[in-house]
């Protein structure tokens, strides 16, 4: 069996590694590096820099964790995010520690006990549920979070008023009924001690895999010679933008280096209200890199324009869903041996573990001889 995998990101590397057990696999990527958006590198100071913004692996999927652990050792890093709110660094998602930090003691205690009578300790409750409540204190809390954490951040991130953003995004803003200020609660969390690029390179170094970088799909020639093509690139580009480009939000990462041990007290600090960037990443926290210098990165959301910047976040809406479905059908008609996957192929935001799980599912379906995998996605 001959397999072509387009894209050497975590989706492509997963499917290539699984396929290499029974097939001859060629992997191509238009970039000069493996890793896709998980790409990281050690800079001149020995600091592991995440080129496309902070990446933390977190999953409760034992199969995904077990698979990735064959190619990397993970440290026990637990991610915490601070938001600069009225000049104070406050843990987010909002939890009891955040409430005690921003409100006077008596108000904080009253809010906590009211929260505990509307849910169990440890629950995550979407703030939208409190916005429509009669209780004055809970409404005040929800309005405070909406105004100081959510509204301006969302405007910067999506370039529009929150009311124009898909309800699925707003519905997710929670308050957590506990003092647990970790950003993720998954069973498995960590950073690969030799980096994501190394992990993905190992996935791609299985016998039977041939890797060609700086090789776009358009240069492949006769695609009919492959039994299967797994395509992790953008489907609108694949189909020549014949129905117009799929909408995305992009990001600009500006890196700065400082002659100091630390720039900030945490790996990620969000700036919901101030400045044009949404957050600052300081990478040396992830692997506890020792250096007298530090490197940070300011993340600026911006419009996506094909050819001038990168695609990061699909813009969920009914219209973009329909456009994607049209492209998917056209791609399936034109390339009967091609399967779409990955954050670009599926036009869906995936965390790394979801990208790996999806690649496993697509490979299983292909090797079982199903003609086409179900998208199983938000658009299907
Ligand atoms: C700012 C940011 C932070 C994130 N942080 C986290 C996090 O903390 N934890 C987490 O789990 N996830 C995080 N993610 C998500 C993570 O980046 C994705 O899950 C992951 O990159 C998806 O991998 P992929 O292989 O599907 O896509 P990609 O990484 O984009 O890989 C696709 C590859 O295909 C190649 N390609 C595209 N078109 C072609 C073509 N025509 N020919 C040849 N090659 C092509 C590209 O060059 C690329 O290398 C974050 C995402 C963003 C945007």
Give a written overview of the molecule:
The longest helix has 23 residues, at 136-158. Among the domains are: 2-34 and 204-245 and 314-367, NAD(P)-binding Rossmann-like Domain (Rossmann fold), CATH 3.40.50; 93-176, no CATH class. With 380 residues, the protein is α/β, with parallel strands linked by helices. The strands form 5 sheets. The chain has a 7-stranded mixed sheet with strand order 7-6-14-15-16-13-17. The protein has a 5-stranded parallel sheet with strand order 11-2-1-12-18. Strands 3-4 form a two-stranded antiparallel sheet. Helix 1 (10-19) packs parallel to helix 12. Mean pLDDT is 94; it is low at 376-380. It has helices at 10-19, 62-68, 96-102, 105-118, 128-131, 136-158, 167-170, 196-203, 235-238, 318-334, 342-345, 352-367, and strands at residues 2-6, 24-28, 40-42, 48-50, 57-59, 81-85, 88-92, 124-126, 174-176, 188-190, 209-212, 228-231, 248-258, 268-270, 279-282, 294-303, 313-314, 338-340. The chain is globular, with a radius of gyration of 22 Å. It has 12 helices and 18 strands. Bound molecules: flavin-adenine dinucleotide. Flavin-adenine dinucleotide (FAD) is lined by residues 6-12, 28-31, 36-38, 52-57, 216-217, 232-233, 251, 312, 342-344, 350-353, 355. Residues 6-12, 28-31, 36-38, 52-57, 216-217, 232-233, 251, 312, 342-344, 350-353, 355 line the site of flavin-adenine dinucleotide.
């Amino acid at each position: 069996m001959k397999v072509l995998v387009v894209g050497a990101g975590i989706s492509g590397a997963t499917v290539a590694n699984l396929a290499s057990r029974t097939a001859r696999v060629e992997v191509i990527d238009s970039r000069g590096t493996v890793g896709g958006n998980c790409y990281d590198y050690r800079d001149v100071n020995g600091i592991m820099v995440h080129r496309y913004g902070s990446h933390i692996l977190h999953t409760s999927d034992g199969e995904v964790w077990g698979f990735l652990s064959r190619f990397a050792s993970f440290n026990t890093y637990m991610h915490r995010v601070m938001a600069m709110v009225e000049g104070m660094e406050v843990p987010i998602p909002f939890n009891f520690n955040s409430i005690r930090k921003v409100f006077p003691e008596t108000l904080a205690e009253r809010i906590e006990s009211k929260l505990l009578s509307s849910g169990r300790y440890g629950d995550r409750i979407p703030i939208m549920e409190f916005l429509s409540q009669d209780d004055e204190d809970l409404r005040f809390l929800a309005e405070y979070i909406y105004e100081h954490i959510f509204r301006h951040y969302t405007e910067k991130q999506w370039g529009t008023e929150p009311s124009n953003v898909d309800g699925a995004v707003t519905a997710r803003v929670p308050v957590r009924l506990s003092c647990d200020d970790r950003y993720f609660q998954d069973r498995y969390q960590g950073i690969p001690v030799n980096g994501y690029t190394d992990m993905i390179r190992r996935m791609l170094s299985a016998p039977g895999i041939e890797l060609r970088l700086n090789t776009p799909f358009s240069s492949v020639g006769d695609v009919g010679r492959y039994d299967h093509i797994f395509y992790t690139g953008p489907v609108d580009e694949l189909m020549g933008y014949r129905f117009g480009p799929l909408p995305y939000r992009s990001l600009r990462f500006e890196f700065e280096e400082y002659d100091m041990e630390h720039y900030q007290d945490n790996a990620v600090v969000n700036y919901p209200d101030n400045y044009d960037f949404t957050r600052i990443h300081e990478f040396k926290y992830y692997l506890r890199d020792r250096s007298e210098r530090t490197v940070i990165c300011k993340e600026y959301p911006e419009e996506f324009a094909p050819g001038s910047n990168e695609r990061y976040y699909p813009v969920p809406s009914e219209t973009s869903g329909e456009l994607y479905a049209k492209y998917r059908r056209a791609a399936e008609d034109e390339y009967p041996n091609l399967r779409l996957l990955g954050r670009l192929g599926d036009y869906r935001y995936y965390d790394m573990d979801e990208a790996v799980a999806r690649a496993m599912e697509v490979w299983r379906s292909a090797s079982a001889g199903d003609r086409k995998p179900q998208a199983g996605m938000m658009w299907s």
